[in-house]
Please model this.
Amino acid sequence: MTSVISRRVFISTLTGGLLAAPIAAGAQQAGRVYRVGILANVPLTDPGGAVVWGAFVQGLRDLGYEPGRNLILEVRSSDGRYDRLPALAAELVQLNVDVIVAPAAQNVAAAMQASRTIPIVMAAVGDPVGDGLVASLARPGGNVTGTSFVTSALVGKQLELLRQLVRHVSRLAILVNPANPNHPLVLDAARAAARSMGVQLKAMNARGPDDFTPAFKTMTAERAGACFVPWDGTFLVHLVRITQLAASTHLPALYGHRGYVDAGGLACYGASALESNRRAAAYVDKILKGAKPADLPVEQPTTFELVINLKTAKALGLTIPPSLLARADQVIE
Model:
């Protein structure tokens, strides 16, 4: 869990010293200076991006890498526009970075297209085997390794929790980004879970911010009783807008990332993005010390968090079951 104080520290660090690191590194003393590229979707100046990437940078610091001393961070962000990723990945390759860190399947794929030799570290990719990024979790086999976020495998549990939050619901909606290669897997898992629960599921496509308002209006028109918003870079960039739409349409929503709950969303359940990014730093360290990505098994998450916003629940007229509150890792009041 991240407190307000630590969040401010991360934001201050990223928007101050870290983003200035490429300039400061010009005055390095003798010795090896490593250049690490970050191919992000959420800008590091965004509060949510600052928290998540702050965890990665702190992980590097804990391992002895200090921006401005022996580390240069080259950051490129798509701002949620996946079509920009190939050009941004090519920029990082031209900068001759030692490692590229990428947080989603489409980002990793863009980095792989740009280079088959520069090591690529995944930071919380949903299904790296299913997406064709690695040969297997145990032996990735190429220039890619890192942490997996098992997004599709969690969907059944997420919809089960959503139904516990909103009892007697018969119609659920799911917000899907057709540009996200992992979302077909997520949608298949959601449909299977809905069938097993005996509820109807309506998929609403949204590629960008212009699609969010029509999607929520359609959910309301089709009398959806609740909504699930899975992990997606474009959605994360606009998480405040999405949580506001859920509130204005009086639609209870469960999210795959805790940033939404911090922004006023009802609840989230998923692997800890902070922990996944800290672990990604460990992969970078091993690779910089000579390990080959092909020989480093992909790490699956061990830390999951359920966060519930009681203030939002009250505004929606929901009474959260005591058993669910007892299971929550954090309850925001």
Notes: The domain at 4-149+272-304 is CATH 3.40.50.2300 (Rossmann fold). Residues 137 and 314 are 42 Å apart (CA to CA). The chain has 14 helices and twelve strands. The radius of gyration is 20 Å.
